[in-house]
């Protein structure tokens, strides 16, 4: 017996992905990109995020309220996988499935999910980055910030650059490629700092005294550091409750103190690039030091494949004296 409901479900998702892929493939080629976001919960019945990563697919699955039994969940996942693989004309070996649920006070950014270590190198705007498709919730590169990274490259020539909450160091690579005089890359997780170093070397740059890497809580680093920087990149997590931190961090509550500490390390003519993916975030300039200038640049930093989702917000923050 033909299951018409299944055929309809598969065709809706498959057709949507095919349409998006056809458009984005041409666009990405012109932009010098081998990876991009194809689908992000475009259709209400298919709460998925799908990234095309140079021949491989990572698909994040959200819970559906209608799938109230394990059997229904398994059926939905099976149908979604079949539809996506048909759309891209790929085999299951190229599909990596992960799950995103509502976060309940846990910091999942640093959590390792597997030990398959399926890695690959992708190209982005003239640079190369190592991705891990299998072991973490995220792959190692936030695709929505590629225009922010390009902006960082353009303003880094001859500058001293500080990259906070650096993750795998993509902003650092762009800054060095743009001619940064020096850089400091800070992240709490030592595995990500090692990853950042690999990305730097992958792009033909040297890890030396000019370009330093620090494993430390960024708030603690800012409190102790005495250096001055011309460009600071600060893209903190929405929240973190890591045991390595002195206290838990929530961007909506703690951003004034974080930005103040960044401004203390910023040169007189320096620029702070501040961003967040918090949906509830609201920047109140009155909570910042007097004379702080804040210009939202989100419309300049969200690329074509993320425009519908408005995946982050970004600001240029400077001091006026």
Q: End-to-end distance, in Å? A: 76 Å
Q: What proportion of the residues is helical, as a percent range? A: 25-40%
* Tally of separate helices: 8
Averaged pLDDT: 91
Rg, rounded, reads 21 Å
Label the overall shape: globular
Largest pleated sheet: 7 strands, mixed
Annotation, overall tally of beta strands: 15
Query: Structural class, judged by helices and strands?
Result: alpha/beta
- How do the SSEs run, as a string of H and E? HEEEHEEEHEHEHEHEEEHEEHE
Structure description:
The chain is of the alpha/beta class and 321 residues long. Helices cover 32% and strands 27% of the residues. It has a 7-stranded mixed sheet, sandwiched between helices. A hairpin with a 2-residue loop joins strand 2 and strand 3. The longest helix has 28 residues. The termini are far apart.
